[in-house]
Write a structure and sequence with these properties.
By secondary structure, the chain is mainly alpha-helical. Helices cover about 75% and strands about 0% of the residues.
């Protein structure tokens, strides 16, 4: 792996655990056993490192969501595959990272917002349209409202205060997804939800 990529990987692992504010360039250099001069040969400053790291992570999420869509047999399986991927990608991530981006790294935070408001919105809308066309979702669902509802519920994993006493935010996401699917599913879709739940529980 090239030095640039190794720096980004190391930095992201630190950011995901502790947020961006508490991690310095000295911390990253020490963790990697390299000099700060090497860091600054690849990144202008910490803000540039945060921006590239977050951009790379979001790009990877987007690629994997697209791959899950392509290999899924139907809209409901797509939702379960994406949730499994997100579960793995965001496991043990510290929610403070979003607060840090918003307050200290405007450019990186804008990348996050752009993904949420454009790519994620498009993905959810297309999934609802796919499920409705295939008869797995009810024909009377309001796609615009439910798209916004689902996108905003996806962001709740970064707001643990909304679920006092619950420490497993991935569990929260799974519960919210299942209830969302039950709410939009037709009878045919309901049976598929039960099927994919059993599969995911046995993985």
């Amino acid at each position: 792996m090239e030095v640039h990529e190794r720096i980004m990987e190391t930095a992201f692992n630190l950011f995901r655990q502790f947020g961006t504010r508490s991690i310095t360039m000295d911390d990253i250099a020490e963790k990697m056993g390299i000099s700060k001069k090497t860091l600054y040969a690849h990144f202008t400053d910490k803000d540039d490192l945060v921006f590239q790291t977050i951009s790379g992570f979001i790009m990877q999420i987007h690629k994997e969501c697209h791959a899950d869509k392509q290999r899924s047999a139907d809209a409901i399986e797509e939702m379960f595959l994406v949730m499994e991927m997100i579960d793995n990608r965001l496991r043990n991530i510290n929610p403070v990272i979003i607060h840090d981006l918003q307050k200290f790294h405007a450019k990186a935070y804008q990348v996050f917002l752009d993904y949420q408001q454009n790519d994620l919105v498009a993905m959810v809308r297309q999934n609802l349209e796919r499920g409705r066309e295939d008869g797995l979702y009810r024909p009377d669902i309001d796609i615009r409202i439910l798209t916004n509802y689902r996108v905003n519920s996806c962001m709740l994993c970064f707001q643990p205060a909304a679920f006092p006493g619950e420490h497993d935010m991935n569990k929260v996401q799974r519960v919210l997804l299942e209830n969302f699917l039950y709410g939009v599913a037709s009878l045919k879709g309901y049976k598929l939800i039960e099927k994919y739940k059993l599969v995911s529980q046995n993985i």
